[in-house]
Write a structure and sequence with these properties.
The chain has 483 residues and is an alpha/beta fold. It has one domain: Amidase signature (AS) enzymes. The protein is 38% helix and 13% strand. The chain has 15 helices and eleven strands. It has an eight-stranded mixed sheet, sandwiched between helices. A three-stranded mixed sheet has the order 1-3-2, sandwiched between helices. Helix 7 packs antiparallel against helix 15 and helix 9 crosses helix 11. The longest helix is centred in the last third of the chain and has 24 residues. The protein is globular. Glutamine binds next to loops.
């Protein structure tokens, strides 16, 4: 069965199969494998087959858009008109949005088909998908291990072949880290590149949506459709969107790539480091030039992130109060009781922990010591990158410090969980784009490599990843149980 979007698109336009057929194939695979993997919170077969039927009619009429008839899965944090948007939380278990997020709207306009909404850590808070109200997701490479998070469902569907493409969001690593742990390709664009309208907010100054797929080539196609200025998002960038797909084949001869020494030090698994080294050798053969660089404030990114993200989430999540939407407790005695019990029953432990820490960090007397300080350090982290990009075109490192860990291994230790994002989080603080692509295996589990670009330089990231994927086949490997 076709696994790449490009292949599916060609098959559809050449009449090899219909969208209804390919959509039904994916729905069958979902029915067969989702019970073991738990990738989906909602599967939407009626919508999928209806959209597929429309796509087939459009194809017959010669009215073919970028993704006409291509089935996709969306993280359950993008609002979808008429379909539940739970954000992996009990508090939104009954929430059906009355409108589509811009990302969803863009995919509809491009003719894509929606298979369903994927599982995720509650409100995108987590690195293992173990914080979902709907239960954890299993990693298709080893069902006893986590798929990463928070977009764990969206990464696992690609690895297991339950969808050829999916969407995720990345606030501190939630696209790149699960992409790495599941052996798929995922890109977090520059902050502002993709509209956040209708994407339920976690930390608004960090959140950014992006795609997952088998390859950079497929990600280019998806990002192209997702991206663009949107006046409904006040931080949306008025940047034109290049034709990412057309830019994939530039030779990377002479490309200057920086290796930050902070990304290759203590804490990085040595076998994983060796896998990254091997990928560097391949890129060198393609003509890329490497030099050592330093991001001296990289070690501050985890503490800075966890002050800013928690402060912003405590504010963003105040809207879930049991009054306007979502879960409401039974028989509230008064307004105070309504707020307390609705939120107390609706939110899970990690979300509560973050709301409490964030509220504390923002409270009078502590604001300067925590939030303001974190903002100042955030600027220093951004400046390190700006300096590096005067010397190099791209920055390269591992996506994660280790491969996927066992389910339950870190649930009692939030700090060790937070450290999973040590290489990804600073990009969100700086607003920079990054891509994770598979470059090998350690312990039979996939390893991800991260490429970091300058602002709005997604084309170069996709181009470089594509060139690597032309000379390697890691991205084509599939877990045997889902081959
Ligand atoms: N793992 C990080 C967190 O728990 C990042 C999550 C994300 O990018 N949404 O906040």
């Amino acid at each position: 069965m076709a696994r790449s979007i490009t292949e599916i698109r060609d098959g559809l336009t050449q009449g090899k199969y219909s969208s209804v057929e390919i959509t039904q194939d994916y729905l069958d695979r979902i029915e067969q494998h989702n019970p073991a993997l738990n990738c989906f919170i909602s599967v939407t077969p009626e919508i999928a087959l209806q959209q597929a039927g429309e796509a087939d009619r459009a194809i017959a009429d010669g009215n073919i858009q970028a993704l006409t008839g291509v089935p996709l899965a969306h993280k359950d944090l993008f609002c979808t008109d008429g379909v539940r948007t739970s954000c992996g939380s009990r508090i939104l278990d009954n929430f059906v949005a009355p409108y589509d997020a811009t990302v969803i709207e863009n995919f509809k306009k491009a003719g894509a088909v929606m298979l369903g909404k994927t599982n995720m850590d509650e409100f995108a808070m987590g690195s293992s998908n173990e914080n979902s109200y709907y239960g954890n997701v299993a990693n298709p490479w080893d069902l006893n291990r986590v798929p990463g998070g928070s977009s764990g469902g969206s990464a696992a569907v690609i690895a297991a072949g339950l969808a050829p493409g999916s969407t995720g969001t990345d606030t501190g690593g939630s696209i790149r880290q699960p992409a790495a742990l599941c052996g798929v390709t995922g890109i977090k664009p520059t902050y502002g590149r993709v509209s956040r309208y209708g994407m339920v907010a976690f930390a608004s100054s960090l959140d950014q949506a992006g795609p997952f797929a088998q390859s950079a080539e497929d990600c280019a196609l998806l990002l192209q459709t997702m991206a663009g200025f949107d006046r409904r998002d006040s931080t949306s960038a008025e940047e034109s969107v290049p034709d990412f797909s057309a830019d994939l084949n530039h030779p990377i001869e002479g490309l200057k790539i920086g290796l930050p020494k902070e990304y290759f030090g203590d804490g990085l698994d040595s076998q994983l480091a060796a896998t990254i080294e091997a990928a560097i050798t391949e890129l060198r053969k393609l003509g890329a030039e490497f030099c050592d660089i330093s991001l001296p404030n990289a070690n501050l990114s985890i503490p800075v992130y966890y002050v800013i993200a928690m402060a912003e989430c405590s504010s963003n999540l105040s809207r879930f109060d049991g009054v306007r939407f979502g879960h409401r407790c039974d028989n509230p005695r008064d307004l105070e009781d309504l707020y307390k019990r609705s939120r107390g029953e609706g939110f899970g432990d990690e979300v509560k922990r973050r709301i409490m820490i964030g509220t504390y960090a923002l409270s009078a007397g502590y604001y300067d010591a925590y939030y303001l300080k974190a903002q100042q350090l955030r600027r220093m982290i951004k400046d390190d990158y700006q300096k590096a990009f005067t010397e190099v075109d791209l920055i390269l490192g591992p996506t994660t410090p280790e491969v996927a860990f066992a389910i339950g291994a870190k649930t009692d230790d939030p700090v060790s969980m937070y450290l999973q994002d040590i290489y990804t989080i600073s990009l969100n603080l700086a607003g920079l784009p990054g891509i994770s692509l598979p470059v090998g295996f350690v312990d039979s589990m996939p390893v991800g490599m991260q490429l970091i670009g300058n602002y709005f330089d997604e084309a170069r990231l996709l181009n470089t990843a594509h060139c690597y994927q032309q000379v390697s086949d890691w991205h084509l490997q599939r877990p045997q149980a889902f081959a």
